[in-house]
């Protein structure tokens, strides 16, 4: 069930990306060179401007990834959609202990200069939450969402 929900959210996100294609840009040669160096196997790449960043959205190993590059063409970080069962064991067990029998809706892996963390949207005991979990399993933030 969790995989189906995550898959459906991926399809919805992909569809919305295509809808807002008018915001697409062509990044500088330096950004393109850095992107190609970081993500050799990237497929279906589209570019957009998000604030001061060049944002590349693409598929890597069948998963949607968003990478950000600053004005100096340096790679700042990326966001990757993953399934709950692809999380590190320490993260999975921390979430399962704190939110027993929760329904998982969205799992994103965030990698940047601060390291790797995971943002998870879930529903437990009829309440919806967005949590941030560190790579070692420490739950850093819990945000209650409106249902």
Could you name the key traits of this structure?
single chain, 147 residues, alpha+beta, Nuclear Transport Factor 2, Chain: A, 3 helices, 8 strands, 44% strand, elongated, disordered N terminus
Quick synopsis:
With 147 residues, the protein is of the alpha+beta class. The chain has two domains: 2-75, Roll (Nuclear Transport Factor 2, Chain: A), CATH 3.10.450; 84-145, Nuclear Transport Factor 2, Chain: A, CATH 3.10.450.
Would you kindly provide a written description of the structure presented here, covering whatever features stand out?
The chain is an alpha+beta fold. The protein folds into two domains: 2-75, Nuclear Transport Factor 2, Chain: A; 84-145, Nuclear Transport Factor 2, Chain: A (Roll). 26% of the residues lie in helices and 44% in strands. The chain is built from three helices and eight strands. It has helices at 2-19, 29-38, 89-98; strands at 43-50, 53-60, 63-69, 75-81, 103-112, 115-124, 127-134, 139-145. It has an eight-stranded antiparallel sheet. β3 (63-69) and β4 (75-81) form a beta hairpin. The radius of gyration is 16 Å and the shape is elongated. 17% of the residues are buried. Residues 1-12 have low confidence and may be disordered.
So what's the CATH class of the largest domain?
Answer: Alpha Beta
What's the end-to-end separation, in Å? Answer: 19 Å
* Mean pLDDT rating: 87
How many DSSP E strands? Answer: 8
The biggest sheet amounts to: 8 strands, antiparallel
**How many domains comprise the coordinates?**
2
Rg calculated over all Cα atoms: 16 Å
Helix content: 25-40%
Q: In one word, what is the shape?
A: elongated
CATH architecture descriptor of the largest domain:
Roll
CATH fold call of the largest domain:
Nuclear Transport Factor 2, Chain: A
């Amino acid at each position: 069930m969790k995989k189906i929900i995550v898959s459906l959210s991926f399809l919805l996100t992909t569809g919305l990306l295509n809808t807002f294609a008018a915001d697409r840009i062509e990044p500088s040669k330096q950004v393109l060179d850095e992107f190609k160096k970081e993500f050799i196997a990237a497929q279906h790449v589209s570019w957009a401007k998000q604030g001061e960043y060049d944002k590349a959205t693409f598929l890597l190993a069948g998963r949607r990834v968003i990478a950000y590059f600053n004005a100096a063409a340096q790679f700042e970080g990326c966001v990757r959609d993953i399934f709950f069962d692809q999380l590190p064991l320490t993260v999975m067990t921390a979430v399962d202990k704190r939110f027993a029998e929760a329904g998982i809706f969205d799992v994103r892996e965030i990698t940047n200069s601060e390291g790797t963390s995971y943002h998870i949207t879930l529903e437990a005991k009829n309440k919806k939450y967005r949590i941030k979990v560190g790579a070692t399993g420490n739950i850093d933030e819990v945000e209650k969402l409106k249902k």
